[in-house]
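Our preliminary data section would be incomplete without showing what the modeling component actually yields. Below, a chain of 213 amino acids is followed by its predicted structure, encoded as tokens that our downstream tools consume directly.
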Amino acid sequence: MVVKVYGYVHASCPQRVLLCFLEKEIEFELIHVDLDTLEHKKPDHLLRQPFGQVPAIEDGDFKLYESRAILRYYSNKYTDQGTDLLGKTLEQRAIVDQWMETETNYFNALALPIVVNLVLKPKFGKPCDFTFVEEQKVKLEKIMDVYENQLARNRYLAGDEFTLADLTHMPMMNIMNIIGLSSMVTTRPNLNRWWNDISARPAWKKLIEMAAN
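Predicted structure:
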């Protein structure tokens, strides 16, 4: 059965889910939700996602929202299909979860407000708080140092294999590059090596092609 993904192909959270589906070779249908017209705040979408965000999925009678919950569910449901994104042992899975939590609570928590101020606020005619952005950048640089140290010891964030720990970072990392923050990655050799590696994956290239069309 084809999974319906309600979202916007240029937004980081839907991209996270789409990338997982491409890695796991899961059939899906992307149903566009127009964020510019606030379609995600309308009653039909609120039945799928009561907080008015994207993405949300429908898999037959099963419905789920929150991108990271969707990642975990489908990576477990299709363990033997496509890329193994979970880790092979209980300990490896714990490390994957650790770095997914790190992405949520440290990396994304700092990067997202920067994107909101530099991109979304001007788009909707609101002023960017440049002082706040610079403060966030300083904090994010310190987080990137932690990643650099981790990747000096490991090929990927959770060890020797590409997993959800890496995948969940990719959409926001890409947005950072687009809006002029690429130096946070390129000035750190291990982080830069990691990004060049994971962004060369066929599934990521397919996602970028989807976003370009």
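DSSP finds ten helices and four strands in the chain. The chain has a mean pLDDT of 96. Preliminary results of this kind motivate Aim 1 of the renewal.
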